[in-house]
Amino acid sequence: MKKLSKPRLPRRKKSKKPLEDGSVPRITNETVAETREEVLKGARKLIYPLQHSKHRVVRLSIIIALAVVIGFFSYSMVSLYKQKNTSTFMYRVTQIVPFPVAKVGNSFVAYEDYLFELRQYVHYFTTQENIDFESDQGKAQLEEQRKEALKQVINKAYIKKLAKEKGITVSAEEIDAEIELLRSQNRLGSDESALQDVIRDYYGWTINDFRRSLKDKILQAKVLEALDTETTKRAETAKAELDSGKDFSTVAQTYSDDLSTKDKGGEIPFLVDKQDRNIPIQMTEQLFALKTGEVSDIFSVGYGLAMIKHIETKENKIRAAYILFNYKDIQEIINAEKEKTKATTYLRL
Q1: pTM
Q2: Which of 108, 75, 103 shows the shortest CA–CA distance to 90?
Q3: How far is Cα 239 from Cα 295, in angstroms, rounded to an integer?
Q4: Which of 103, 126, 207, 322 could form a disulfide with 344 if both were Cys (CB 3.0 to 4.6 A apart)?
Q5: C-alpha to C-alpha distances, 88 to 22, 91, 130, nearest whole angstrom
Q6: Burial category of 144 from C-beta neighbours within 10 Å (exposed 0-12, middle 13-18, buried 19 and up)
Q7: pLDDT higher than threshold 80 for residue 28
């Protein structure tokens, strides 16, 4: 008996046209360009909104950043110029942002310089003198210190201006030599750790802060020496008389600016030891390098020039005499500069 077979459906012919129901059409060499354009057109519809959104995010971020910067600057200016804030935070801000406290000629004086000067005073009087700057008396003293600190940084700006005009600089080696000189007489401790302890306890400074202070001090002395030619000439005249055989005591009575020793031929009224703090450290260094009866060359003591004589040695101490030639008061030189170049201050005290 013959098996019955399942009826077969007629085969549908393949259409070469794209399907109208949205299914993916067949891509051929003839239709590839058209299909690519259709795909890119669909992608653009997605990309454009994303790009627009991205631009909005960027603009919003810039606006927020500008608002933060403007707010920060506004807060800083109010804190510094109106409230006169001297906190550690504001000091750090002035180390990063060069807010001016004054202007000398065409050069600005940094607010950081002013706070550096003021904060050492505040630290010293708080820790060493137990001054309460919250009391009425303390507040009055602080106001005076503010004025003094501002005066000092403006003076230093004039000194730096003069140094620049004269080509005067201070090298790292000169600062190192000054530190070693102080250490040699145990005035700042015998090692780095002791030095750090001393300057931190007294001034709240780091080593770099101390070096900065020494640099200012050395620069002022070098500017004074360069500008006060009259004092240099007096010292050279006195030295020439000593070299010609004139008695040290007689020369001291004629030329010395130290009124306490001048009439006694320049003799120091006590025996000097190597760690003596009653005379400038530069004098001690020169004195202990001399033999009995010798006189030093002219040397600087910062505020003037000097010569010193080793009279005799007694029990590791030296009987000595010296001649001092004081420089002009630095304020005289600065005042003369102020007549030529005016200073403008931005802080009302």
Answers
A1: 0.76
A2: 75
A3: 10
A4: 103
A5: 71, 5, 20
A6: exposed
A7: no
pLDDT digits (tens, 9 = 90+) for 282-303: 999 999 999 999 999 999 998 9
Question: How many Cα atoms occupy the beta-carbon half-sphere of 146 within 13 Å?
Answer: 19
**What does the pLDDT look like over 294-338, one tens digit per residue?**
999 999 998 999 999 999 999 889 999 999 999 999 999 999 999
Return the HEC string of the chain: CCCCCCCCCCCCCCCCCCCCCCCCCCCCCCCHHHHHHHHHHHHHHHHHHHHHHHHHHHHHHHHHHHHHHHHHHHHHHHHHHHCCCCCHHHHHHHHHCCCEEEEECCEEEEHHHHHHHHHHHHHHHHHCCCCCCCCHHHHHHHHHHHHHHHHHHHHHHHHHHHHHHHCCCCCHHHHHHHHHHHHHCCCCCCCHHHHHHHHHHHHCCCHHHHHHHHHHHHHHHHHHHHHCHHHHHHHHHHHHHHHCCCCHHHHHHHHCCCHHHHCCCCECCCCECCCCCCCCHHHHHHHCCCCCCCECCCEECCCEEEEEEEEEEECCEEEEEEEEEECCCHHHHHHHHHHHCCEEECCCC
Residue 13 clears pLDDT 60, i.e. is over it: no
What pLDDT digit, counting tens, does each position of 141-171 carry? 999 999 999 999 999 999 999 999 999 999 9
For the chain, what's the residue count?
349
Tell whether the model's pLDDT for residue 17 goes beyond 70.
no
